[in-house]
Amino acid sequence: MNRKQVIEVAAQLFLIRGYAFTSMDDVMRESQVSKSNIYYHFKSKEELLLAAVEYWIERYEAAFFALLGQAERSVEERVYAFLHELTAGIEERECQGGCPFISFYIQAPDQAVQVKQKITGFFTELQPMLAKLFQQGLKRNEFRRGIGAEQAAALFIAAMEGALVLAETTGRSAIVEETAQHFFSMLR
Predict the structure, then answer these.
(1) What does the alpha-carbon distance between residue 115 and residue 154 come to, in Å, rounded to a whole number?
(2) Strand positions, DSSP E, the chain
(3) What residue numbers bound the domain in which 164 lies?
(4) I want to staple 173 with a disulfide (CB 3.0 to 4.6 A). Which of 5, 56, 87, 136 is the partner?
């Protein structure tokens, strides 16, 4: 339980405050887990960052697998349901920390090779998952002819990452869903 609690707290703190600006004392204070217990589970702050990255990957992958399994709903409905939860999290953080993966990749120390590899792996696996989702929409004629599922997935990822940066810099989480609306209007 303590390990999970520390990871959840660190995942939020690293995202909101930044990895460099979050100390192990901050994690200890916010998680209410003793420093010795934290260091029992994590040998270093970098190891805790890796666990935080894995925490976010698990959350996102679970959401994406759920989207793929909801074939009775349109692709657009499924994506908006996911984005609604995503923007709710952004609003809870007052628009601090848009995309955990981009934030952590940029903030990770150069020697945090495992962290960067995990994040790269996440994006490498994300595109085919989204391509499957868009392929479902193409088969059901939700999108106009000539749309490539792989290209749509790549463009969607780029658009969403940009929207997350804009949401953070402008303090407007609605940009995420607005960007998705523009994206889907181009597919129809």
Answers:
(1) 22
(2) none
(3) 56-187
(4) 87
